[in-house]
Amino acid sequence: MFEVPNCPKCNSAYTYDDGSLFVCPECAHEWSLADATPSEEEKVVKDANGNVLNDGDAVTVIKDLKVKGSSSAVKKGTKVKNIRLVDGDHDIDCKIDGFGAMKLKSEFVKKA
After folding, report:
1. Contact indicator for 53, 45 with CB cutoff of 8 Å
2. What is the pLDDT of residues 37-70, one digit of tens each?
3. Residue 30 class from Cβ within 10 Å (0-12 exposed, 13-18 middle, 19+ buried)?
4. Backbone phi and psi for residue 80, each to the nearest 5 degrees, phi listed first
5. 101 CB contacts (<8 Å, ≥6 apart)?
6. Which of 6, 49, 94, 103 registers the highest number of CB atoms within 10 A of its CB?
7. What is the pLDDT of residues 3-13, one digit of tens each?
8. How far apart are the C-alpha atoms of 92 and 84, rounded to whole Å?
């Protein structure tokens, strides 16, 4: 059986279908079945505080990070400019002064 999706506008769970349309009784938003099927949505990357990150943002490292193959670490408070979001476990690609090109996990940075 087809499960009625939540409202895409207000995320209400009280939606119902009305023929070929879905209707939200809370915000009166109507959408069709073609709109309700999820297409390939782009991945939303969030920092440690829950802020959405975008390409070109500046972030700050929130804890000391060990670097493989190096005896030094990226220190807490290091500011990283002009990040690029990529797919994978390490979802931030950037250049850090003194270290070069690196990949970081978004859970260890906050938006600057």
Report:
1. yes
2. 554 456 789 999 999 999 999 999 999 999 988 8
3. middle
4. -120, 125
5. 93, 94, 95
6. 94
7. 888 888 888 88
8. 6
Asked if pLDDT for residue 105 goes beyond 80, the answer is: yes
Q: Specify whether domain 1-39 bears CATH 2.20.25.10.
A: yes
Cα distances (Å, whole numbers) of residue 108 to 7, 15, 102, 111: 32, 38, 13, 10
Other C-beta atoms within 10 Å of 77: how many?
10
pLDDT given for residue 42 in this prediction: 63
Predicted local distance difference test score (pLDDT) of residue 32: 83
**Per-domain residue ranges for the chain?**
1-39, 58-111
Question: Which has more pLDDT, 74 or 41?
Answer: 74
Identical fold at 1-39 and 58-111? Answer: no
Give domain 58-111's CATH number out of 2.30.30.40, 3.90.180.10, 3.40.720.10, 3.30.1130.10: 2.30.30.40
60 backbone dihedrals φ, ψ, rounded to 5°: -120, 135
